[in-house]
Design goal:
The complex is a heterodimer of chains A (319) and B (571). The radius of gyration of chain A is 24 Å and the shape is globular. In chain A, a hairpin with a 2-residue loop joins β3 and β4. In chain A, α10 crosses α13. Chain A has 319 residues and is α+β, with helices and mostly antiparallel strands. The longest helix of chain A has 16 residues. Chain A starts with a strand and ends with a helix. In chain A, the strands form two sheets. In chain A, strands 2-1-5-3-4 form a five-stranded mixed β-sheet. In chain B, the strands form five sheets. In chain B, strands 1, 2, 6, 7, 8, 9, 16 and 17 form an eight-stranded mixed β-sheet that branches. Chain B has a four-stranded antiparallel β-sheet with strand order 11-14-13-12. A three-stranded antiparallel β-sheet of chain B has the order 3-5-4. Chain B is globular and about 65 Å long. In chain B, 63% of the residues are buried. At the A-B interface, α1, α2 and α3 of A face α3, α4, α10 and α13 of B. Bound molecules: flavin-adenine dinucleotide, iron/sulfur cluster (SF4) (2 copies) and FE2/S2 (inorganic) cluster. The site of FE2/S2 (inorganic) cluster (FES) has 12 residues of chain A, from loops.
Amino acid sequence: MAKVTFRIFRYNPDKEQASRYQDYIVSLEPGVTLLNCLNKIKWEIDPTLSYRMSCGSAICGSCAMKVNGHALLACKTQASELVRDGVIQIDPIGNSPVMRDLVVDLEPFWGAFRKVEPYLMPDSRDNPERERLQTAAQFLKIDAATQCIMCAACWSDCNSLEVDNLFYGPAALAKAQRFIYDSRDAKKRDRLVEISKLHGMWDCTHCGECSTRCPTEVKPLARIEEIREAAMAEGVHGNNGARHALAFRETVSKRGLLDENYVPVRSVGFFNIMGLLELLPVGLRMFIRRKNPPIIPHGIDNRKEVRKIFSRQKEFRRD
Amino acid sequence: MYTHDVIIVGSGLAGLRAAMELVGRFDVAILTKVYPSRSHSGAAQGGVAAALGNVDGDTPEAHIFDTVKGSDYLGDQDAIEIMCNDAPAAIYEMEKLGCPFSRTGENKIAQRAFGGHSFQRACFSADRTGHALLHTLFEQSMKNAGKLQVYSEWYVTRLIVEDGVARGVVAFDIKTGRLEVFHGKTILFATGGYGRAYQITSNAYANTGDGITAAYRAGVPLMDMEFVQFHPTGLYQHGILLSEAARGEGGYLLNGLGERFMSKYAPSKMELGPRDIVSRSAQTEIDEGRGAGPNKDYVYLDLRHLGKEKLMERLPQIYNLAKDFIGVDAMKNPVPIQPTAHYSMGGIPADNDCQVLADEKGNLVKGFFAAGECSCVSVHGANRLGTNSLLDALVFGRRAGKKLAEVTGGMDWSPVDERKELDAALNEIRALREASGSEDMTSIRSELKNTMTYKAGVYRNGDDLGQAHKKIKELQERFKRAPMADKGNTFNTNMVESLELAHMLEYSELIVAGAIERKESRGAHARKDHPTRDDAGWLKHTMAFKTADGGYELRYKPVRITRFQPQERKY
Ligand SMILES: Cc1cc2nc3c(=O)[nH]c(=O)nc-3n(C[C@H](O)[C@H](O)[C@H](O)COP(=O)(O)OP(=O)(O)OC[C@H]3O[C@@H](n4cnc5c(N)ncnc54)[C@H](O)[C@@H]3O)c2cc1C
Ligand code: SF4
Ligand code: SF4
Ligand code: FES
């Protein structure tokens, strides 16, 4: 049996000011999960090691942690797949204050859900005696997002959250998708307006980490794309994010390229004097460092092809 | 000290559902040792029973009979009638709150077959029904955040009962170690099951019977503890559940010789016989040498013939569990399984409104309620039918809430001596913290779990049970000499595990004690030395009382039979 070093992040505020790593050497029996190994360490070597777990079967969302730098569920991952040069390095999940060892404070994560009003708001007139009807196709639209186990693996590795801790985060936005696309919900538009605000759905940078880390089928980035689409279709355009998307489309479809002067100005809004003033310093800094885009935009040669893509896509949407 | 009108312990389906009846009318607190969405209800896969008749001609009447028969006639028939009649309304309510149910071709809630049910009765959401229901109620608790105080990661250690009146609980904040008294007019326990005392189990690490033990220590009797359900399809060696939905959707059980062995045991229902019978059949195949694998210690669940499409649409989670946990691709190979401890039929005795009984005569513990798996109403009797327990948690959670509203409204505050209660709780914890000796918790726990699985498991007999009893006594003594390694305050999971082990050692003795006395085979309690059901001697509920010297006394309570006289149970 292979001996493996578990290099585990340790921190106990009762005893020490700084965190440290502690190594435990464990021989891996075939078929064991990472959680099995942690339990072995806790139960046979060091009972002071703290982490969360409950179901042991990938459904309760307790056991997310960072392994070799990325979040995953300890209970559903085979330990043997995680060994790098004889070592498995384990840290608490990211974007969250550590309380002890692998246990983090989850209040910010739960708080994000509250921002999206995460419960059905039906039309009160739609109240049949039995169940409300829903087609299988309608159910499928919310099937992915309703699989969220609230494990915070996505939250841990989200790049936007790293720079903006008020960002709603992937899981809460996926939760919003679940109601926006629920045929039984009556507040679609209000919800879209709400999550279009600052720190909401438009502040995701599309890095895709959330979908890579998600242990279920939620795939938050795909859900975020769906709510953005819904916002565009519903005409919820009165915010920087939507204007940015529109401006982006406008310039690309016109010139075949991005006009980097036009997009930010259009995103903030032509008549938004304060917003435009806020852009000035950024523009100036870019100018000083010679990072500014050419003032007079040029286009590419075969713009026609680009326009064709756009009109094809429009037809496709209509189908 | 914290004060709330109603204190609910447990945030699974039963606790959250009860809270919904009370928010806005009373000051309600929920205490839970894990975050609400992490309660074990979320692990339920297959479905929730209700005679909606969406795919066939099902009726509540048929549901009642199936449940009575499934319970091996130990279920109380008036309670079963209530549950089955309330079922459709309970499901429609959940649909209206937004629960995502799978749908039929007519866009109604989809329903499928389940063991022991004579119609397609299990409403479902793919194979994560409990998850869908739990998250729907969790959403509602967030909606009511202003009116409902949820104390997550608080561990309840004591129930306060004085002069027959429940007055509150003592709990500590796992995050900081701070101990507090919670004073309430009424208390509801919805703390879930006790299957963790077994080595092979489908239950979460959190299912350590804390609530029932706390009640027992406070002088409340426990009922029918010997009835522990084993589920036939636990993932080999892990115990993780592969839902009965796998068989509901047409999966086969095969022995090591490749035979569909259920044809010998339940020829008409085959794989869809009730759980106790299917588990015993699988265990018999293993015991008689027809198991599979090098040690012939498992059998197979075969899903290959269902085809990729059905497997991925109806049973995706099961497919993933087999793949991730033991590396078996269920599309290509049969999945190794063995019976796993799954459901606790016994628990805190309660009447049809979830008011807790103080004795076998029907006296009540004033202000104390129990609902869900920790309670014993008894709707499941000697054997629960699959999908009836989510239903139990919803229906009786709702009933508990309604009755709590009524009782709390008309109740005065009974005083609590805060210092005394804190001291009592501190002493309990101190005894664990300051234990000294060379014993260790880990071996005690694993010896207990092995004893329960192999001596008080699917099949039992007088000798094994006697040895189990002796062993548990020995382990209880050894535990007193097992020091707690972590003496810190912040997120001390070592302390939580130590308290949990103390509970398991206490209630396991009652499982075994009830089983030793019950000299018959009924439902999940199968004795090789008393292989038949004995209605003349044993058509009654066991009630275990804690005696002053720390021992126990067993008394009995008659079963309420209304319309269905006991018959032989054949499938
Ligand atoms: C794997 C699996 C699959 C299942 N599938 C099905 C199915 O398909 N259909 C079906 O009908 N049933 C199924 N069941 C059974 C069903 O899920 C449970 O019986 C039911 O969910 C129990 O709900 P509950 O509300 O009583 O308790 P739980 O959901 O277990 O909740 C218990 C609560 O009590 C709290 N708690 C416990 N102790 C303490 C303490 N000391 N201090 C504070 N809080 C505490 C916990 O934090 C938790 O919130 C399944 C069970 C398992 C194990
Ligand atoms: S895609 Fe968006 S939400 Fe997902 S991790 Fe990246 S920034 Fe965060
Ligand atoms: S979206 Fe995925 S990763 Fe994020 S909390 Fe939900 S299940 Fe976990
Ligand atoms: S322990 Fe529940 S998801 Fe891992």
